[in-house]
């Protein structure tokens, strides 16, 4: 913002305003306020000449400070250099504190000692172009173009020093060293970016083939064990075939496990998952990123955190968002070891129990058949042979486990022989009819076959109980779920998550940059932040909102870059530069125009509450705006100077001024009130000096006006 | 030492040979170090960094001399133990030093003089991982040559893109030596691991760790698993830099070079000659074991050199 009115302070030791010896003096505004000591005004010809001859300078208000000097006759006089010419009007400030005076015949009273600098107030209101112009216009109506000013200035909201304190406080709050909100308590925005749901493992890919193979083989193994258990399992399936199916299922499951774990390790690899390797396995490529959604997510998080907290909080929350994109590592504990489908040391105990259980039956059937009087001699050995033959067959077809075949045959054979021998040797008790013998033989065969089927079942059950087919199926399902949810889902959202993480980090870095600018602004501020401040919640809130807007505006470029989908790079300094410019403009604006008017870079719709509060607290402003100029005001001179003023009311000029929003609020537009762009409401009374105290002094003829004094 | 200045330095290179360097320094820079640091350019055009004593008004000369000695000793060690053909990019290399004159110095190959503090905040996601790996590799290199940096932190890091160079070795000592002028407990590699863990935690979360080195806030699960054990109170219980590299699926750096390699041929010849000379004497130990003997401890090598 270019300044429309500049202040040049020629007083010795002056530090504010534009340095008259510096290079900036050539670029002053077209309206300048020159401040000098009244005692030196007749001697500074060359300096005045230098200022008056700057090309662009159109109007000059010379403010002469301090007591009058005396003329050649020893009477008090205000001696004015003629070098500033017609472009210049003069205000004489005999005392910076001033006296309370109503004008007219009032003799005036001392101001309260603690009252603040009236000169500062005057210079401040002259800094507004409309007020400056009005002062020039009205003082030109006064003889010699010289007047003594009286001021009554009201800051409708807060004193400038207080405002600076509030600003510093807001800056510190925004920088936020005491933002305690933990970053992890993020709402929905803090969660991981959405996971792809539509994707699935590519058909006929290695991952898919191995998954299907494991599924098929496991089903085969289950079917084979079930078939083996049937009464004719020994004939149809046989132990070896079932065993082979189980082994195949184990191998297929192992192959599935290997590739699934490889996919998991690939997808959660640091620094970045290997998309091509995963695609070769059958995991679909990451889905396309909706860049505007990423910008919306991160931008919303940024704005939300700024609203409720500070830049530090926002930076941390964004970093947390970035960190959480990586997601949890998959829990692969259940799948780390090869799945064995058989228990290694399986049910060693009671290996002989089915054999032992069948021995009494062998003994009984052999004895019973051999003891038959007629056919015993043939049926007994046949019975024993039947036992041994069928048992031998079952033993060759049995699944693994159980006692050795030879031992079993030997024990059973010995039992059968014992039964036959016993049957043959026992003398027949009673004669039995032939049909009975046939019945006994038939029963024996039936009992033998039933016992053999039961033994077979027991044997198969014992083997099946050593298998872990159910567990294997669970592992298989787990692997399928792991790949579908974790690998495929994660890989589907991989690009989105990477982009979100980068976007969040870009904004987090930007927040840190803005923070550094705010901290720097705080430390550069000349005013100590310890001024007592009233209760200005609304204003503090407005400033906070403004600073939020400045922060987000400074980061606008970054958000646009995120939304555009272009590769993200953190350009060092860009955000900081933008933030520095905006902050400087804002601080200047605030110091000049107060917090009530929305600065160009300030928050929209933040000032409603402020205006209401102002309306209620604006008694002073209303009084000042109604002033006619005949009230008691602070005349900027000493008590003794009053008699050097010409109090004739016809010569006095009164200027009232207020900012536009106050005028609108009071509905007083057009009542000859100057519309100032500053946050002040006030009235200036310009009182002419008596004709005999003003002297125009021309430079001595010998002096070269352009030379050094 | 402000502004451009021609300097002629007399000293020794890392292998102790006398050397002279002519360089133009471009002024002292703020390097986050207690030693005075100046950037410069050799007359060959190579950029260098010159480390000298801070002004006596700032630090007692006896203390600053110890700091400079530490730096010379540590960087000499890393330079000698890693062959020039493949120097670790994560560590500075020594061009030369001088420690027994009134103007001692360490002359290092050039690195960026500005600290990593602001640049680290701007790293994007994948760059953070590169940063992490690079930092851990630097620590693994130091671990391999039994050095403890003692002051790992942002001021001691230089960023080139996202890869790290660890500098400012003024507090570096050998493992087990008293750290920081003897008032601190014996230095251990776990000290650097702890410092790096705190640094990483801060870089990733933006939240500084508390005074006792423990993370103050909650971290995401994978960061917790990356840093698990790093904040253990006992340095011996902390994972090594190589362990941490494994956690980020990064390979450990190549081991330091065997500086006795050049002697192997001579020793073999000694063994041959000896076996010829001693032919006929039955009791003979396996020649290689006796001749080569145990490799000298790194401490001893350093001691002999100083």
Explain the overall architecture.
The complex is a heterodimer of chains A (709) and B (306). With 709 residues, chain A is an alpha/beta fold. Chain A folds into four domains: 5-155 and 611-697, no CATH class; 166-190 and 496-610, no CATH class; 206-288 and 308-338 and 471-493, no CATH class; 346-466, no CATH class. Chain A has 22 helices and 14 strands. In chain A, strands 1, 2, 3, 6, 7, 8, 9, 10, 11, 12 and 13 form an eleven-stranded mixed sheet that branches. Chain A has a three-stranded mixed sheet with strand order 4-5-14, with no helix packed on it. In chain A, strand 7 (99-101) and strand 8 (109-110) form a beta hairpin. In chain A, helix 9 (291-308) packs antiparallel against helix 17 (537-554) and helix 12 (376-397) packs parallel to helix 14. The two termini of chain A are 35 Å apart. The relative contact order of chain A is 0.16. The model of chain A is unreliable at 182-196 and 705-709 (pLDDT under 50). Chain B has 306 residues and is α+β, with helices and mostly antiparallel strands. Chain B has nine helices and ten strands. Chain B has helices at residues 61-81, 117-121, 125-144, 189-205, 221-226, 241-247, 261-277, 287-292, 298-305; strands spanning 4-12, 18-29, 36-42, 47-52, 94-98, 105-109, 147-148, 157-160, 163-166, 173-174. In chain B, the strands form three sheets. Chain B has a six-stranded antiparallel sheet, with helices on one face. In chain B, strand 2 (18-29) and strand 3 (36-42) form a beta hairpin. The longest helix of chain B has 21 residues, at 61-81. Chain B is globular. Residues 282-306 of chain B have low confidence and may be disordered. The A-B interface holds A 182-184, 269-272, 312, 315-316, 319-320, 322-329, 498, 501-502, 505-506, 508-509, 512, 516, 568-570, 572 and B 118-119, 121-126, 128-130, 133, 204-207, 217-223, 225, 248-250.
């Amino acid at each position: 913002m270019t300044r429309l009115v500049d202040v040049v302070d020629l007083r010795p030791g002056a530090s504010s305003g534009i340095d008259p010896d510096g290079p900036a003096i050539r670029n002053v505004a077209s309206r300048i306020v020159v401040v000098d000591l009244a005692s030196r005004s007749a001697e500074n010809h060359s300096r005045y000449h230098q200022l008056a001859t700057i090309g662009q300078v159109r109007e000059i208000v010379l403010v002469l400070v301090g007591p009058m000097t005396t003329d050649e006759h020893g009477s008090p006089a205000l001696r004015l250099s003629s070098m500033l010419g017609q472009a210049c009007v003069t205000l004489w400030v005999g005392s910076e504190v001033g006296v309370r005076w109503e004008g007219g015949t009032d003799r005036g009273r001392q101001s309260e000692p603690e009252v603040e600098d009236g000169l500062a107030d005057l210079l401040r209101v002259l800094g507004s172009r409309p007020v400056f112009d009005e002062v020039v216009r009205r003082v030109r109506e006064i003889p010699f173009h010289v007047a003594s000013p009286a001021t009554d200035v009201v800051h409708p909201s807060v004193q400038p020093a207080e405002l600076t304190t509030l600003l510093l406080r807001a800056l510190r709050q925004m920088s936020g060293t005491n933002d305690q909100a933990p970053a992890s308590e993020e709402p929905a925005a803090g969660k991981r970016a959405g996971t792809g749901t539509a994707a699935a493992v590519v058909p006929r890919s290695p991952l898919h083939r191995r998954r299907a193979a494991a599924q098929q083989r496991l089903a085969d193994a289950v079917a084979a064990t079930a078939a083996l258990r049937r009464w004719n399992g020994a004939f149809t399936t046989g132990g070896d075939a079932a065993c082979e199916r189980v082994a195949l299922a184990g191998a297929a499951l192992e192959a599935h496990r290997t590739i699934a774990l490889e996919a998991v390790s690939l997808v959660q690899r640091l620094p970045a998952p290997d998309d091509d390797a995963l695609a070769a396995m059958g995991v679909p490529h990451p889905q396309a990123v909706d860049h505007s959604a990423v910008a919306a997510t991160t931008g919303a998080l940024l704005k939300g955190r700024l609203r409720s907290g500070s830049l530090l909080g926002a930076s941390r929350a964004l970093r947390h968002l970035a960190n959480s994109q990586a997601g949890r590592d998959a829990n692969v504990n259940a799948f780390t070891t090869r799945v064995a489908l058989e228990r290694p040391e399986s049910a060693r105990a009671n290996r002989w129990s089915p054999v032992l259980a069948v021995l009494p039956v062998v003994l009984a059937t052999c004895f019973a058949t051999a003891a038959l009087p007629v056919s015993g001699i043939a049926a007994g050995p046949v019975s024993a042979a039947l036992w041994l033959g069928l048992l031998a067959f079952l033993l060759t077809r049995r699944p693994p486990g159980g006692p050795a075949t030879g031992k079993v045959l030997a024990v059973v054979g010995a039992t059968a022989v014992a039964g036959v021998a016993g049957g043959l040797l026992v003398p027949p008790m009673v004669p039995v009819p032939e049909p009975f013998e046939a019945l006994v033989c038939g029963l024996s065969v039936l009992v033998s076959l039933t016992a053999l089927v039961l033994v077979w079942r027991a044997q198969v059950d014992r083997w099946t109980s050593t298998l872990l087919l159910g567990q294997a199926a669970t592992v298989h399902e787990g692997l399928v779920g792991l790949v579908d949810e974790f690998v495929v889902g994660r890989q589907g959202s991989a690009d989105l998550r990477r982009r979100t993480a980068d976007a969040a980090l870009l904004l987090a870095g930007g927040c840190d940059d803005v923070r550094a600018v705010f901290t720097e602004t705080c430390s550069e501020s000349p005013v100590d932040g310890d001024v007592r401040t009233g209760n200005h919640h609304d204003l503090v809130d407005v400033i906070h909102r403004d600073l939020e807007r400045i922060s987000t505006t400074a980061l606008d470029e970054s958000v646009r870059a995120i939304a555009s989908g272009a590769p993200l790079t953190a350009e060092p300094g860009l955000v900081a530069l933008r933030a520095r410019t905006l902050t400087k403009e804002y601080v200047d604006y605030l110091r000049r125009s107060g917090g009530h008017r929305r600065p160009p870079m300030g928050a929209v719709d933040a000032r409603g509450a402020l205006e209401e509060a102002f309306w209620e607290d604006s008694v002073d402003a209303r009084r000042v705006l109604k002033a006619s100029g005949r009230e008691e005001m602070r005349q900027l001179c000493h008590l003794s100077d009053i008699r050097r003023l010409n109090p004739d009311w016809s010569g006095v000029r009164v200027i009232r001024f207020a900012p536009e929003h106050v005028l609108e609020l009071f509905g007083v537009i057009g009542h000859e009130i100057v519309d100032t762009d500053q946050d002040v409401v006030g009235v200036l009374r310009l009182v002419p000096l008596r004709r005999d105290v003003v002297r125009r002094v021309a430079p001595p003829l010998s002096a070269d006006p352009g030379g050094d004094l | 030492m402000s502004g451009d200045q021609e300097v002629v330095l007399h000293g020794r290179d890392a292998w102790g040979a006398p050397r002279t360097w002519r360089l133009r320094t471009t002024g002292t820079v703020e390097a986050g170090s207690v030693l005075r640091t100046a950037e410069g350019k050799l007359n060959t055009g190579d950029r260098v960094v010159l480390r000298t004593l801070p002004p006596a008004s700032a630090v007692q000369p006896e203390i600053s001399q110890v700091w400079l000695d530490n730096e010379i000793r540590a960087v000499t060690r890393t330079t000698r133990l890693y062959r020039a053909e493949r120097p670790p990019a994560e560590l500075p290399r020594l061009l030369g030093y001088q420690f027994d004159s009134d103007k001692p110095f360490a002359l290092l190959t050039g690195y960026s003089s500005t600290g990593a503090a602001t640049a680290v905040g701007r790293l994007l996601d994948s760059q953070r991982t590169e940063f992490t790996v690079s930092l851990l590799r630097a620590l693994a290199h130091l671990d391999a040559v039994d050095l403890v940096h003692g002051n790992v932190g942002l001021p001691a890091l230089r960023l080139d893109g996202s890869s790290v160079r660890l500098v400012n070795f003024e507090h570096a000592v050998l493992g087990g030596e008293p750290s920081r002028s003897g008032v601190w407990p014996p230095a251990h590699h776990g000290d650097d691991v702890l410092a790096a863990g705190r640094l990483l935690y801060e870089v990733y979360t933006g939240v500084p760790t508390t005074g006792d080195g423990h993370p103050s806030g909650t971290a995401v699960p994978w960061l917790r698993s990356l840093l698990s054990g790093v904040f253990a109170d006992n340095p011996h219980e902390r994972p090594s830099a190589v362990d941490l590299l494994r956690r980020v699926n990064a390979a450990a750096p190549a081991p330091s070079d065997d500086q006795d390699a050049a002697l192997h041929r001579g020793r073999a010849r000694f063994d041959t000659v000896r076996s010829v000379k001693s032919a006929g004497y039955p009791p003979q130990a396996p020649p290689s074991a006796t001749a080569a003997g145990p490799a000298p401890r790194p401490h001893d090598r350093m001691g002999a050199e100083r």
